[in-house]
Design a protein that fits this description.
- The protein has 368 residues and is α/β, with parallel strands linked by helices.
- Helices cover 26% and strands 30% of the residues.
- Strands 1, 4, 5, 6, 7, 10, 11 and 12 form an eight-stranded mixed β-sheet that branches. Strands 16-13-19-17-18 form a five-stranded mixed β-sheet. The chain has a two-stranded antiparallel ribbon with strand order 2-3.
- It is elongated, with a radius of gyration of 27 Å.
- Bound molecules: zinc ion.
- The site of zinc ion has 5 residues, from strand 13 and helix 6.
- Zinc ion binds next to strand 13 and helix 6.
């Protein structure tokens, strides 16, 4: 019987959110599920083995299928694939397919085509390059014949006994398992791959995802005997903001900009200041609530840019802490957030320390 191994333990680039790319929503479902579903649907495999980083277990919580086994991967790709081979050894497999979770767009037809080749030790789909190819060796760059450049894809299929032997004794880093065969001068059968079967590497690969932008603005009066919350951070101050909630203009402007980007109205509609249940509520609770709503609708935050306009306090002293809090609230990484502190040169009510204002622009990506 055959086994299908999906390598998904890599950290990869987390280009949209803190979620690793293989668990990011891609064309309607988590990227890894495209591979899982096709492997199951093909009826070619007795078991589908997911090799993951144990930290990512949460993303597979709802996965219940006795054909699927989840195991922990290793540090490098070669460690992960060896762990998978060790795991399936007890089933005495004939063939094993090894596949990258970052290639969700292969077809079931390709699986069947690969499966038809019975005798080869290694079957690997490949494409030739459309671009002219050069090869750099130390300082010398030479021309390569384009049609002789093989760009290999996964899934790749191997005779279990052969690859297991090779993987056990391998000490070198590899980028795909067919390298083990080539490194040992063993024959690999190359078959035509699929143009659509590309590796999802960059943000642009999410072709069906559209970016949209939202703007937010808020201002609160500064009065004595009120607490001062900015960006979710409590700041020691003799004056604080007046407001129905905790009066955090930064979180309110962020919330509004997110709602704007997702075309979901505004903060006043969602949390009316006429309602007692929102009296003195922490704005962190409101923002978290909105984040859950936009996530359930398939939106991901791309970046948030914030201007805090105030004479006092000096924003630069609190920037880092605020960014940390906002990144946790929005479930994004700190490098997706930017804060700028501005004054109004002592002009107007902000200049006279009677008010504090904040403006924000957020961009979001909607998954198809
Ligand atoms: Zn407000």
């Amino acid at each position: 019987m055959n086994y299908f191994v999906i390598l998904a333990a890599g950290k990869g680039n987390r280009f949209i959110s803190k979620i690793p790319k293989q668990y990011t929503n891609y064309n309607g479902k988590k990227m890894i599920f495209h591979s899982i579903d096709k492997a199951l649907k093909s009826n070619l495999f007795r078991k589908v083995i997911l090799v993951i980083n144990p930290k990512d277990k949460q993303y597979l919580r709802n996965l219940k299928n006795n054909k699927i086994k989840i195991i922990s991967g290793g540090k490098e790709r070669m460690d992960s694939s060896l762990k998978a081979l060790n795991f399936i050894k007890k089933y005495k497999p004939k063939k094993v397919f090894i596949h990258d979770a970052a290639r969700p767009d292969f077809s079931i037809h390709l699986l069947k085509k690969i499966n038809k080749f019975n005798l080869s030790d290694a079957i690997v789909p490949y494409l030739t390059s459309d671009n002219s190819a050069k090869y750099k060796d130390k300082t010398k760059i030479s021309n390569l014949k384009r049609e002789n450049v093989y760009l290999t894809q996964t899934p790749q299929c191997f005779k279990f006994n052969t690859i297991y032997k090779l993987a056990k004794k391998n000490k070198k880093k590899i980028t795909d398992e067919s390298s083990l065969f080539l490194n040992n001068n063993l024959k690999v059968k190359f078959i035509k791959g699929e143009i659509t079967n590309k590796k999802i590497t960059y943000l642009n690969d999410f072709v069906n995802n559209k970016i949209s932008y939202g703007i937010g603005f808020d201002v609160h009066r500064l009065v004595p005997k009120r607490k001062l919350y900015l960006g979710g951070l409590k700041i020691q101050s003799k004056i604080g903001t007046l407001g129905h909630s905790d009066g955090d203009p930064v979180l309110h402007a962020i919330t509004d900009s997110i709602l704007g980007a997702c075309k979901l109205g505004d903060i006043g509609e969602k949390f009316s200041d006429q309602k007692n249940k929102f009296k003195n509520i922490r704005s962190t609770v409101l923002l978290k609530n909105i984040i859950n709503i936009i996530k359930s609708k398939g939106y991901l935050i791309n970046n948030i840019d914030i201007n805090i306009i105030t004479e006092t306090p000096k924003i630069k002293n609190y920037k880092k802490k605020m960014i940390n809090i906002i990144s946790k609230l929005c479930d994004i990484s700190i490098n997706q957030i930017n804060i700028k502190g501005k004054t109004t040169e002592k002009l107007g009510i902000i200049g006279k320390e009677k008010a504090i204002a904040c403006e924000v622009i957020t961009s979001v990506i909607k998954n198809a």
